Amino acid sequence: MDHLAHVSNQPNSQPQSQISHLALDIGGSLIKLVYFCRYDDNCRDDDELRSQNESLGSESDNSRPVLGGKLHFAKFETSKINDCLEFIHSMKLHLGGFHDCTAPSSDKIFIKATGGGAYKFADLFKEKLGVSLDKEDEMECLVTGANFLLKAVHQEAFTYLDGQKEFAQIDPNDLYPYLLVNIGSGVSMIKVDGDGKFERVSGTSLGGGTFWGLGRLLTKCKNFDELLELSHQGNNRVIDMLVGDIYGGTDYAKIGLSATTIASSFGKAISDNKGLVDYKPEDISRSLLRMISNNIGQISYLNALRFGLKRIFFAGFFIRGHAYTMDTISVAVNFWSKGEAEAMFLRHEGFLGALGAFMSYEKQCLDGLTVNKIPQRFPISVSSAGNKIYCSMNGKSNDNESIECTV
Amino acid sequence: MDHLAHVSNQPNSQPQSQISHLALDIGGSLIKLVYFCRYDDNCRDDDELRSQNESLGSESDNSRPVLGGKLHFAKFETSKINDCLEFIHSMKLHLGGFHDCTAPSSDKIFIKATGGGAYKFADLFKEKLGVSLDKEDEMECLVTGANFLLKAVHQEAFTYLDGQKEFAQIDPNDLYPYLLVNIGSGVSMIKVDGDGKFERVSGTSLGGGTFWGLGRLLTKCKNFDELLELSHQGNNRVIDMLVGDIYGGTDYAKIGLSATTIASSFGKAISDNKGLVDYKPEDISRSLLRMISNNIGQISYLNALRFGLKRIFFAGFFIRGHAYTMDTISVAVNFWSKGEAEAMFLRHEGFLGALGAFMSYEKQCLDGLTVNKIPQRFPISVSSAGNKIYCSMNGKSNDNESIECTV
C-alpha cells in the first residue's frame, strides 16, 4: 500500500522528464489544470503490482508499470489565459499529452481538455504551444471527477451547519443516485445514476459569475476572493428587505416566515434615499452571496425532490470552502426541504472537471502515450476503470492542497 | 343585467356621500388601494334583485339593497406613505370602513388592510386618520382576489409568447388546482385548491424589490417604471455570459443549450476590464430583468411540477403588463418544462391583495357598516360569497383601468 499519488496545488519546478499528463478544464471564469509528476522512476514490477491489485479486488490489466508521484492542481482566470499558456510552457506541461495512435508517425500532441474553453481556445493552444486539445464532454468530466472523489477519497464529503463541518461516511456501494450541483460561472445540476450514467436535469444562470460580475460592478473589488473575503464583515440586513421590515418587526408566523427571513434581496435599496456610494461593499457582498447561495440551494433542492434524490453534493470553484457560502446553501436546503434533505460539500470541489478530463487519458490507446518515457498507467487513474481505490487524507487537513492516495 | 361595478384607477373627486369602502394592501414597496364609489343612490329594490340573482343561481341573502358604482384603484410607494395618507384624507376615504358591531355605541372606524404594512403602519393610520386597520391575512387576500378575477372577469387571464397575447378561456368549474405566483418585492407561490383553500408552498427573495433595488444601485434610475422602460432598449448579451461566449460561439448541443442561452447572468462583467460606468443602464436593466424573470419562471415551474399543477398564474405589480417581462417568464416556463407548462398572466395583476381585503368586508356583521348610508352589499363583493358573477370588459381594452361588471 505504498504507491502514492500526492495531490497538490503547489507546483514545484519539475525537471522535464518527470512531467506526465496534463488535463485542462477551461470554464467561463477559470482555467483549472491537473498535471501529474512522478516522484522518480520507481516503477513497480508486475508481481508487486499484481499482488497489491488483487488485495484490492482490482480487475485492471497488470502488465503495465505503476508510477508514484504527485497530482498537481493549478488555476488561472480565463481572462488571463496568456498567463496560463506561459505557465504551461515554462513547466513544459504541454508535452504531457498523448500521440495519436492511429497515426504513429505523427508527432502531434493531444492534451485532454474540457469546458467551453476547450472549443473556444483550441486554436490559441495550437498556435502558442503547438498542441491540440482533445475535447472531453464537460458534464461527463464533472461526473467522473465527482465519482472518483466520492468513492476513492476518504473524508471527501462533508456537511456544514452552524459552523460545524462533519465528514460524511459514504458507502461507495450506496452512492447512487445523487444530485451533483456544480457552481462555476453558471450552475449545472446533474442527476448521477452510476459511472458514466448521468443527466443534466437543470441549472441556473445565477452562479459564481453573477456573484463576481455584479460584485465587481457594485464594489471596487479586484477579484473574486477579495469580494468573498469582504462578505465576512458584512451584514445583509442593511440592504435586504426582511419579513420584519415589511411586518414592522414581527414574524409572518402563519406561513412560517420569521422576521429575519429575507423577503426581498436588495429590497431595502428601493426605499432608502441612498445611492451606491452610501452602502458598504461588505454589506453588498454579503447580500449578494446570500442571494445567490440561497437561490442555488433552493433550485437544487427542488430538483432533488423531483427525482427523489436524497443526497445533494455541491461543488465548483464558487464555494472555495467558504464558511458563509456553505452555511447559506445548507440553510437553504434545510429550510426548503423542512429538514428532509441535506447539503454536502466536497473538499476538492474546484477540480472535478479537470480530474475527469485527466482520467479520460485512460480511454486512449496507450501505446503512443509516453512523451518522456512516462508510464502508461498511474495509480490515480485506475479509478475510472472501475477498480477500488482507497485514499486517505495526508495528515493535515489542507483541503484542495493535498490528498495522499494509496492503491 | 344593468347593475354595474366599474373598476377604474382614475380617481375622481367624489362627494363624500358617495364614498364607500376602502381596502388597503400595504406591501414592502407599494401601497395598493381599492375603494368603491356609488354612481348615485340608485339602490335596486328587493324584487328586482331577487329575480336577477335567481337567474344567476345566486344563493345570497336578497334582503339587502344593491349598489351600482365604481371600484377605484390607486397605488403609492410605501416609502411615500404620507402622500397616501394625504390622498386618503383629502378624499375622505378613511370614512369608508366599518364600525365594530360588538360595540354599537363606539364610533371607531375599521379599515380592511392586508400586507405587512397593515401591521407596520397601524399606529400611523390611527394617529393620522383616526382609523384602525383590520388586518386580513396576506395570502388569503391574494387568493380571494385571484379567484374573483379568474372566475368573474371575462378575458382576465392570458398567455404571452412571441409578443402575442392570447386570452385563455377559463372554465370556473375547472379552475382548481392552480399555482398563483405573486411577484411583489418578494415572490410568493401559492397552491390554490379552491375558495379559501390554499397553501403557500414556496417563494423567492429575488423579486420586484431585487430588480428595483439592484437597478437603483447600478443605474441612475429614479423609479421602477423608468428602469423597466430602459430595459426596452437594452441588450442583455453585453453583460450576460452566454453559452456561446464560453464555447467560442458554438452551442453545447449535447445538453440542449444553444449558443445564446445565458450561462451566467452578469458573467461578462468579470472578464472585461470595465467598470460600472462603462455599461449602459439599458443593458444593465435588461440583464437584471431577464435574470429575475427567468429565475421566477424556473422556480415556479419546479413547484407546479412538484404538485402536479397545470396552470401557473403570474400576478403582482412587478409585471405591469410589461411585454419583455412576460415574454421572459413565458420562455422560462416553456424552456424548463420542455413545453409541458404554460405561464398565464392576469390583466389586473397588481391589485389581488387589495381586492381580497376589499371583499373581506363581507365577513363583517354588516349592521354597523354604513358610514354614509352606504348600502351594505354591492355587486362586486358578491363573488366572495360564492355566487356567480359574470364580468365583461368595458369596451376598450385598458387592462387595469376599467372593468365593467354585471351581476
UniProtKB/TrEMBL annotation, chains A, B:
Domain of life: Eukaryota
InterPro entries membership: ATPase_NBD, Type_II_PanK
Pfam families cross-referenced by the UniProt entry: Fumble
Coiled-coil ranges from the UniProt annotation: none
PANTHER family documented for this protein: PANTOTHENATE KINASE, PANTOTHENATE KINASE 1
Protein name in the entry: Pantothenate kinase 1
Organism (species): Gossypium arboreum (Tree cotton)
